[in-house]
Amino acid sequence: MKRVPVRQATESTRSLPGEPLAAESLVVLDGSTFFVSEPNGNVDPEQEASGFFFKDTRHLSTWRLLLSGRPMRVLTARTPDYYSARIFGTLGTARVGLNPTILVRRDRFVSDGVHEDVVLDNNSDSEQEVRLELEFGSDFADLFDVKARKLKPMATSIQIGSDRVRLRYEHDAFVRETTISFSEPPTIDTDGARFDLRLKPRERWRLCIDVTVVATRASWTWPRCDSGRTRTYRGPFRPPACPGSWRCSDATA
Prior knowledge:
With 253 residues, this protein is mainly beta. 4% of the residues lie in helices and 49% in strands.
């Protein structure tokens, strides 16, 4: 079993505070985009140095897969590539030393977003009932605030659809979004998604989850300024007026 310690990932993740994390954490990355989690794939909001980070912003601060109310029991966890992870486990209630009735597999891939496959196998000759829950949350914290443990409260909004949820933070022109979509329609509320499953004997059930992010700045356009020409500004805050010291042109700033 291969688990990648945070200190062996990248310069960015090396400087994350290590005290709240377990001795070994699962790290998947692609360039400056990275996902730090527990070996079972979960991100606990109490562990401030973990989560999914994109362009120095934490887009997932909570990411917990629960099976019948408990985290999965990890059998193996490894990183086949720097950008992917594979976790095998079973129910948290499974007894040690016995063949597990339910096997769970989590495959995670990181790029500009996250793709995660969750596969459940019923290895028994009888029907099994399992409640699968995915708790999610995003604090949109800046990476440097996370490292310094100086998290600021963010007023975020949430939009819930039939098969997806969108978390959003907006301050003037500063916009950050995290959209989580599911291949199977769940029951969704503001804290997570839920699937109540009845697995037939030897049945396999699969769920695909996509996490897409938005990190942008809006544009503000003045119809006229001192020169009579329009000017478009892209920046983190809405300007109060067109400053006379700026030289207006047709180019974007």
